[in-house]
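Input set for joint prediction.
Command: fold jointly, output tokens.
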Amino acid sequence: MLYLFYLLAAISIVSAVVVVASRSPITSVIALVVCFLSIAGHYILLNAQFLAMVHVIVYTGAILILMLFVIMLLNMNTLVEQRKPLAARLMAVVTGGMLFLVLLAATRQGLGQAPETYDAGIGLVRTIGTVLFRDYLVPFEVSSVLFLAAMAGAMMLAKKEGTDNLNLPPSSEPDERAA
Amino acid sequence: MSALILISVLGVVMLYLGIFSRKQVLAPVAILGLLAAIALFATGWHIPHHLLGSMLEFDGFATSFSIGMLVITALIFLFGPDYYERKEWHVAEQYALMLFSLVGGLLLASYSNLLMLFLAYEVLSIPLYVLAGGKKRSLRSNEASLKYFILGSFATAFMLMGITLLYSLTGSFDLGKLAEHMAAPGASGMVLNFGLFFVVVGLAFKVGAVPFHFWKPDVYQGSPTLVTTFMATVVMMGGIAGFFRFIDSTGMPDSLARSMVLLTLATLLVGNVSALRQTNFKRLMAYSSVSHSGFLLLALLTDSGLHEGHGSAVGGTLFYYTFTYSLATTGLFILFTIAKRANAGAEHNGIFKGLWHANPWLALCLLAMLLSLAGIPLTAGFIAKYQVFLLAIGAGWLKVMGFGVLMALLGIYYYIMVAREAFLPAEGSGAFVVSRLNWVVITLCTIGVLAFGLWPGWLV
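tokens >
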């Protein structure tokens, strides 16, 4: 188990470095997929099956594929040499360094302590299902109304309005297309 | 809960009816469903509180607000067949989205859990973002939709942050637990204050209290008039109901109550003073709704932690105020649409010119509803404002109340200016065409405003 953890950690770190260092956007995204998959592996090691599955489905499955589509549609797969002005690069280094400092300060105290004990079954699908469908059934159902409304709304906005009603009398609304 | 399920299913039924493109049946089916929901609420046929995981509570306050919202929605839908007469596409979706939004409003009136507050807020808002952009070819409508969406998302994010902070204190989303935590000695702290404040920011955005009111005129102006009516009435009722439930069950620490006083004063001032200079009727109504939310906030304030023990009086006043305000607003927007059609789509206040000569009864209706919004005696608006001021006196907010009275007097001016237009001679404008159904709705709204003004006991 411990060796598995080291293996996954090494994969995560190497692929994360590749994401940042690679010049081709496609390579970056593929490396990000690998990174996310290895993080899902960490979740499984921590006994959080549900989180691991959601992570794979939502991040690796949906979001990264979306990013790949965007890269392909924008035709960004050629190597683009980007020259940023010196000031911008300096600012990036300063802000990144500050974030690193904050993260270091936040984790520094936690390193020496033993982790708190917790219920090992808390991340299992069965536990989450029980909580979701017993304590939080009403919010669950209400969120389905929310998604339905969002879906119907997206459909209404995206669907083309027909053009076969041109022979109707002109509407009384002011024609603001000219504006 | 059964009524909520009914309304949600009704929305799905609307979507299915849209397939057959028979838009004549849409409004009747929707109104029948709404009437059934009113009956369900009136008979009190509910699933008990504890079976819902203590998420919703249908007490007297929730029931009256829910019935009020259902009645107003039914009135708006009665206006629907006429409004959508020339529109061929997506009519069913518009009805369905309004029904889904109504579900959010009903939930806001009955939540007893912060998680439900967030969901209700979103169910109320998301259909509105789409509905505001209902006129796809109109740039103003697009602007309204985008503006509302972006600002609304910010408000939601604030509220979510607040809920997270409150959760970190109690480890529970339950409002009762939160109240217990706050009642415990030594409870006040930065996290609590910020948590409450962020939730209040989210709610204040929805009712358009002043630092968070900038979306209102633009969105009201750009949205299709029917949607504007829905926003000004049902959404306002839902927002105020949600606000009251939050403040009534948690109470307010002194520091937050003081900032709420500032919010109220600013809302009253900006709403009324900006309305004075508006020439576009929809923008005028937007600022008028800002000023009305100022009066409603004044009533809410008296329920804060400083003054214990008259939550139900405040709830009753809020219901009376919002319901009669919604009645008058619905009637006015229908009259506005009629006048707008008669004037080739113009939206300035002058479009009401000649109404008295063309149709004396409608001019009188317009006058009665405007006077009710202004708060002239014998109308419901007067009783509503009177009750708010009584509450403020009872709570000892004398200076704030004096300021409110001053602002109410200022408000009379711009309502009278609109009413004056209706009695001026016409300027060669087109005819006011009133369908029978619209006439009935306007008359109903007027009679409601006058009757509840003369016999307020019917509603409280």
